[in-house]
Amino acid sequence: MEKNIKKNGLILVFTGDGKGKTTAALGAALRMISHGGRVGMVQFFKVSMARVSWPGFRVWSFGGGFTWQVPREENARVVAKAWEKCRALLRDAKYDLVIFDEIHIALKYKFLKSSEVIKALKAKRPSQHVILTGRGAPKSLLKMADLVTEMKCLKHPFDKGIPAVPGIDF
Per the domain annotation, does 169 fall within a domain? Predict the structure, then answer.
């Protein structure tokens, strides 16, 4: 691992209504791996990434669908397990970058409290980088983050009746 990467861990937020938040996080993961780092990713509502196997990259996928696809009680249970894993990764010196995919959705629907997430982020290892993704990032996270990127949809194939494309959308 290059020394300049380990020095100062950053908190990055990818949010907005446009596509590309998880994709941007995965691009950062590939860059980290190419520098000899290790990446851990927790997916709060998705299951598709669990099959990915890259050296230096580990994914834990929780849940069977987004908030509108499963009962609230099931989502609450799944988010609690996902958040437990996130907190463990923030303490794990093995991971240089951790990604909390769709955590903003868990916050938006009040499965988690922003104050709890911020407290955990402040207690992370100083050299560890963290990426938080999902629509509707709370202002408190935007304020504490080192980098915030908002994805904005200008055009989408779904508007033409084209469904999600395997390998592109999931």
Answer: no
